UniProtKB/TrEMBL annotation:
Cellular component terms (Gene Ontology): plasma membrane
Taxonomy, superkingdom: Bacteria
The protein, known as: Permease
Taxonomic source organism: Ureibacillus chungkukjangi
Annotated TM spans: 12-29, 41-65, 86-109, 121-145, 152-174, 218-239, 251-270, 276-294, 306-329
Length: 330
């Protein structure tokens, strides 16, 4: 098992290094015999922009994950998390709603919390609301739509309700934490003993560095796939499919998944579709993207079992579609 994990880690590292060589090296080679196509330059631009957007949030995320690993004990977790499932999910969604985080940066935090003993369903509630309805996202949504309170309130209300429903369904379907390396995390958490402050801070940074390099591999892979699809799959052809409200909602959800935008900036892109699609479809774009997108899915697959990620994807897609559609009837 350990051999397979090491081999998988080496293959993923080789894959990521290959992506970086493919994308970056040609940009520094200025020879008359080398012609770089416009589409390749566009792919590079999108790829780098996704990385530049995401990496600061990943850095914040891994620092928090390192802090949790060293300073938060299982006793703390047991004291903070309510025994009642609904109250635990509700608390996790509320904490996520006030916690500024990107969908990439929140993955290492959730992994560390679940490894420390937070129930899976509470981790999912935090995972979904953190990038979606934190204060920065709501403010950017309000500004992007010309100081329109309605869209910002709808995004917050529908997103919170959907996250709550998804986490509750997860609490029924899954009884274990679904982490890929659960035993390894179990071993690491038993090592957290009382030490002087300075060595603990040093250990926190060591954990954060390890977490950063672990997560960055999958972030780079996800960013490349997202950039490739944005470059070579025509967005206009997708937009032409949105003739009815149902179709336009599904198209906007598909765009949110493929574009893999940072949740702090996606409202400005969503606002650009106001003259193309109805408000319901734009709301689906704003709610669905921060919960699940292409780069985030690849990062989730590195942390959780594939079956769980697939079920989570189906739950998010179906429940967001249902709740957004119902919101249009209000």
């Amino acid at each position: 098992m350990q051999y397979r994990q090491k081999r998988s880690g080496k293959l993923s590292t080789v894959f990521v290094v290959g992506i970086l060589v493919l994308c970056l090296v040609p940009l520094f080679l200025k020879t008359s015999s080398l012609t770089i196509s416009n589409s390749f330059l566009q792919l590079n631009t999108i790829f780098l922009s996704i990385l530049i957007e995401a990496i600061p949030f990943v850095l914040i995320g891994v620092l928090i994950a390192g802090f949790i690993q060293i300073f938060i004990t299982e006793d703390h977790i047991r004291a903070w998390i309510p025994k009642n499932k609904f109250l635990a999910v509700l608390m996790s969604c509320v904490v996520g709603a006030v916690f500024p985080a990107c969908e990439c940066g929140i993955v290492p935090i959730v992994r560390r919390l679940i490894g420390k003993g937070v129930p899976l369903y509470a981790g999912v509630g935090f995972l979904l609301t953190g990038p979606l309805i934190n204060p920065i996202v709501i403010l950017s949504t309000y500004m992007a739509f010309g100081n329109n309170k309605e869209i910002a309130i709808l995004r917050m209300g529908v997103g919170f309700a959907a996250a709550l429903a998804i986490a509750l369904v997860v609490s029924v379907l899954f009884k274990t934490n679904q982490l890929k390396n659960a035993k390894e995390l179990q071993r690491s958490k038993t090592k957290a003993k009382k030490q002087p402050l300075v060595p603990r801070i040093s250990e926190m940074f060591k954990h954060s560095i390890d977490e950063f390099f672990d997560m960055s591999k999958y972030l780079i892979a996800g960013a490349f796939v997202a950039a490739f699809l944005q470059t070579y799959v025509s967005t206009q052809s997708l937009l032409q499919l949105g003739n009815t409200q149902v179709q336009s909602t599904l198209v906007m959800m598909a765009l949110a998944f493929v574009l893999s935008l940072c949740s702090e900036a996606d409202a400005f892109i969503g606002a650009s579709f106001r003259n193309v699609f109805p408000t319901t479809s734009i709301l689906a774009f704003l709610v669905y993207g921060p919960m699940i997108d292409l780069k985030n899915t690849i990062m989730l697959l590195s942390v959780f079992k594939a079956k769980f990620v697939f079920v989570l994807f189906v739950l998010i897609t179906s429940i967001v579609f249902l709740f957004v559609t119902l919101s249009s009837l209000l």
